[in-house]
Amino acid sequence: MQTHEIRRRFLAHFENAGHTPVPSASLILDDPTLLFVNAGMVQFKPYFLGEAPPPYATATSIQKCVRTGDIENVGHTTRHNTFFQMAGNFSFGDYFKEGAIRHAWALITGSQDDGGFGFDPERIWVTVYENDDEAERIWHEVIGMPAERIQRRDGRDNYWDMGIPGPGGPCSEIYYDRGPEYGVEGGPVADEDRYLEIWNLVFMQDVRGDQSPKYGAAPIGELPQKNIDTGMGIERVAFLLQGVDNVYETDLVRPVIDRVQELSGRSYDDGSAEDGVRFRVIADHVRTGAMIIGDGVVPGNEGRGYVLRRLLRRVVRNARLLGITEPVLVDLVGVVRDAMGPSYPELVTDFPRIAAVAAAEEEAFLATLATGSRLFESAVSETRAGGSTQLSGENAFLLHDTYGFPIDLTLEMAAEAGLDVDEGAFQSLMGQQRARAKADAASRKQGAADHSVYRRLLEEHPPGEFLGYTDLQAATRIV
Ligand code: ATP
Ligand code: MG
Ligand code: MG
Ligand code: MG
């Protein structure tokens, strides 16, 4: 089943049940807690927080999401995109747990001839919050889910809140068992790769205080009006229904992999494991880049612009590691436009602008690479002349700091030249630089709308980790 059909069926299911269809919000909303919209409920926050009356009792949407916190997973796990589409249904004081569970069940196990996704009910597992007897009872008694496929999880996985006093509530997550060849038995608590999470249902029922129920503290009250917020990953459903191996091989992402095979002359399916990761990273990141530029971000050194820059440069770098030396971004963004255009017409109408932004960034980065490469070459000669096989940490740091040369590129190029790199010394120089940045940051005045806060967070964490955004997003994680 193609992605556009999965989207259509989701919306049709909920529209038939009286939900108002609401278009995706932009990835960029005026929300100081978020760099990018990362869940379907973000645009409905004022209704959930009681700041505005909801114009409808129930709604459904397919929201564009970006989760930079997942960047290091991309290409390595089977299930994490940086850009993905979260399909959701929302109830503002209308139906609650039973309604949400019944809807999700009907859609995922409903026959394909009847507008459902046709998943085998025997392969579905669910989790509920550790003390949510009500959800467990509904799954077991109303739906008929055998008790052994219902697992309880604590608040770290199955409790939602916004990290601040306000609404909160238990979650129930729905998983599909891909089968014994994909991991160990024992349900989602044992293996999240074999058991693929497809849908999260949030039951907003509590008022939480200063202490988070996530970590065991009891909520301080009950919400006067109970709400439902759900999120189903379109790419994950497509991954399963298309019989491919991961979210990067689904119909809207795979075309980029195919184009990169043509450009590089290397094979994705029969190539090395390292190359496989590179193909997937390129396909994921170029799509995210196109969507972010589409919503008005330009590359820069702070906040959203920095995320975009990092994504685009990772595309270019990985393309080079696959042996491509020519510029690739405009070409690949064109592939994204063709794949995603039917759902996101702005990619088509705005293509000249999107392509121009991507082209300029690539040109700048290729210039960086060109200058950096000269320094790299002389560092290699120097190393060899000194009878060593190890590039110094100072040189790796200089390449990173002055030429914006990512360390993994230095490592890769050094390996090609038969050298390794003094990574310990490199990391310690990076650590010193971060300490300086931290001291700088501490002495700088803070402002609420000051996006340099993101930059500072980024500086405080090693580039490979990207924890600044993970933590920021975790604090406001929605479903
Ligand atoms: P996971 O545990 O697999 O990282 P999650 O629990 O962080 O997922 P939720 O926050 O519950 O995900 O988001 C709701 C749904 O959105 C998930 O059930 C999944 O189907 C989808 N989803 C979440 N993150 C991603 C991602 N990085 N790429 C693709 N789909 C995603
Ligand atoms: Mg996650
Ligand atoms: Mg999860
Ligand atoms: Mg989840």
Automatic annotation (TrEMBL):
The keyword Metal-binding applies. Keywords: Aminoacyl-tRNA synthetase, ATP-binding, Cytoplasm, Ligase, Metal-binding, Nucleotide-binding, Protein biosynthesis, RNA-binding, tRNA-binding, Zinc. Its EC number is 6.1.1.7. The keyword Aminoacyl-tRNA synthetase applies. It is an enzyme of class 6 (ligase). Its main location: cytoplasm. It catalyses: tRNA(Ala) + L-alanine + ATP = L-alanyl-tRNA(Ala) + AMP + diphosphate. Residues 1-479 form the Alanyl-transfer RNA synthetases family profile domain. Its cofactor is Zn(2+). GO terms for molecular function: alanine-tRNA ligase activity. Binds 1 zinc ion per subunit. It is found in: Cytoplasm. Belongs to the class-II aminoacyl-tRNA synthetase family. Catalyzes the attachment of alanine to tRNA(Ala) in a two-step reaction: alanine is first activated by ATP to form Ala-AMP and then transferred to the acceptor end of tRNA(Ala). Also edits incorrectly charged Ser-tRNA(Ala) and Gly-tRNA(Ala) via its editing domain. Consists of three domains; the N-terminal catalytic domain, the editing domain and the C-terminal C-Ala domain. The editing domain removes incorrectly charged amino acids, while the C-Ala domain, along with tRNA(Ala), serves as a bridge to cooperatively bring together the editing and aminoacylation centers thus stimulating deacylation of misacylated tRNAs. This is Alanine--tRNA ligase. It comes from Actinomycetospora termitidis. The chain holds residues 1 to 479 of 897 of the full protein.
